[in-house]
């Protein structure tokens, strides 16, 4: 039965996606407003198709340019983040060359960066700044790789370089610091019951796992529950510098994941508001003295 379920889900996914790709491509070609809203509706539908029950805590920033910094453990992160908000992603250049999924990434206006070459990194930073100035919400994964879903890996401050940019929303307005919104993603349930550490690798894609076999096993594993928490934004000006900002964002994301994995949001209503996490004392002192 699980194999049949997975086969049906995969078939419907491929057919619906192939049909929808020209629709999104035309929106990009003619710069139509639906190029931002269609991916959000599409990924919400995918979450229902895949059996992902999504609980959203907090509110994503959608009325101005924002850099969202999230932990990363699975390709399902793309579905749940894009299903929860109108976003595009920042990804490594190699993703753009992936069969099928690379095309999907380009259709969602993904910014591709080449981390090894400094000149390319600077160019990507400029592109990110332009997109933020246009009001886009861009998601990046500062860990630089994916984890096993049970922890948050150290954030790399270099990947948050765009947070030092200054953007303005009008010709007469003073340039302001880029808002950075921490986001915690937690895989908390399987078949309606709390998920243990041993089951998260069914959905977490990391190390040298092959994508297609892992995706097939994940579809067979069954419905899952995911908590996405959007924390209040901050800026590099508030933190003091980029390294302090990175450390504070990492601490907030880690604390959010820890709360979700501990079951704090198991019965939380969808789209409920979470209280602002208290900043670690060392960062409050740094911000006050900056």
Fold-level CATH name: Glycerol-3-phosphate (1)-acyltransferase
Mean pLDDT: 89
- N-to-C order of helices and strands: HHEEHEHEHEEEEEHEHHH
Low-confidence stretches: 271-290
CATH architecture: 3-Layer(aba) Sandwich
CATH class: Alpha Beta
- The percent range for strand residues is 15-25%
Rg over C-alpha atoms, rounded to the nearest angstrom: 19 Å
**Number of structurally distinct domains:** 1
Helix content: 40-55%
How many helical stretches? 9
The total of beta strands comes to 10
Describe what is shown at a glance.
The chain has helices at 2-29, 34-50, 76-84, 101-107, 118-133, 211-221, 236-239, 242-261, 281-289; strands at 52-57, 66-70, 88-92, 111-113, 137-140, 166-167, 176-177, 180-190, 193-194, 224-230.
What this model shows, in words?
By secondary structure, this protein is an alpha/beta fold. The chain has one domain (2-289): 3-Layer(aba) Sandwich (Glycerol-3-phosphate (1)-acyltransferase). The protein contains nine helices and ten strands. The protein has helices at residues 2-29, 34-50, 76-84, 101-107, 118-133, 211-221, 236-239, 242-261, 281-289; strands spanning 52-57, 66-70, 88-92, 111-113, 137-140, 166-167, 176-177, 180-190, 193-194, 224-230. The strands form two sheets. Strands 1, 2, 3, 4, 5, 8, 9 and 10 form an eight-stranded mixed β-sheet that branches. Strands 6-7 form a two-stranded antiparallel sheet. Helix 1 runs antiparallel to helix 2, helix 1 packs across helix 6 (211-221) and helix 2 crosses helix 3. It is globular. The termini are far apart.
